[in-house]
Amino acid sequence: MKKFIFILCLLVCFLGLTGFKSEEFTIENLDQYNKEFKTEEIEVCSTSSTKTYMPYTTITATGSKQYKYIQEHMTVDATTGMLYDEDGFIGAALGYSFCEIGSRYYFTLDSGIVLPIVKVDAKASQDAPNGCSHAADASVIEFVIDAGIATEYFGAGPTGLVKQGNFNNDSRFKGSIEKIEKVLSDKIEEGVYYEEAVDTQESEKHLIGQADKELQLVGGIAQK
For burial by CB atoms within 10 Å, which of 6, 8, 80, 201 has the most? Predict the structure, then answer.
């Protein structure tokens, strides 16, 4: 019985680590995303499921923090038109309660999806007076995109560009906000540990595969 429990624990560990490298990040594998950085949980200021968008080309003030950050840190995905940073965080406009431009967050949805978001623009205070959600559409996350590429990928018209202007209508982004974590600068330590039950009822920590092959968590994917 103990052997069965031990094997089951190993399987859970391995299944929980399926993911991908940040440089391989696309919206197609959001459901497999694994957090790479340490975090601190913050208050969920709104559980809204609405996720709108804006073209990054509307940010034209060359001296602004927004413009400089996008030019220096963000890359336009040639397929989808989404903006990603070097660690696969998706560019979005957030309210003033989400700190400065360049701050990064993990938004966990009630669907289980984790959205890695970097703040590349600030919602105007008159649009989001509470510093969190848009007064008109209740959106917390407003993706900053290349509208031309995104239109080709998601489609145009009333049922295009993510169906009536809401990314929540795409299953890859679907869900209400359940948890928000501010991303810290340190990455999660490499190596995943499990607890092994022994006959003496004592627990000893072991690094998975240390006696065989070392298993490391690198860039969001388990690698041997």
Answer: 80
Straight-line distance from the first to the last Cα atom of the chain, in angstroms, rounded to the nearest whole number: 28
Q: Is the pLDDT of residue 110 over 70?
A: yes
Rounded CA-CA distance 170/194 in Å is 36
Residue-wise pLDDT for 152-170, tens only, equals: 998 877 767 777 889 998 9
Both tokens of 216, joined, read 């490391």
Pair of tokens at residue 141:
């996350």
Task: Please state, in angstroms and rounded to a whole number, the distance separating the CA atoms of residues 78 and 80.
Answer: 6
Phi first, then psi: what are they for 156, rounded to 5°?
-120, 175
* Residue pair 127/96 in contact by the 8 Å Cβ criterion: no
∠ CA(52), CA(57), CA(58), 5° rounding?
70
Q: What secondary structure, in 3-state letters, does 44-55 show? A: CCCCCCCEEEEE
Spatial separation of the C-alpha atoms in residues 158 and 142, rounded to whole Å: 19
For 141-153, write each residue's pLDDT tens digit.
Answer: 999 999 999 999 9
Pull the structure tokens for residue 155.
């489609």
Alpha helices per DSSP H over the chain? 2-16, 65-73, 147-154, 161-165
Cα distance between residue 129 and residue 68, in whole Å = 25
CB atoms within 10 A of CB 213: 9
3-state secondary structure of 219: coil
Which residues share a beta bridge with 119? 92
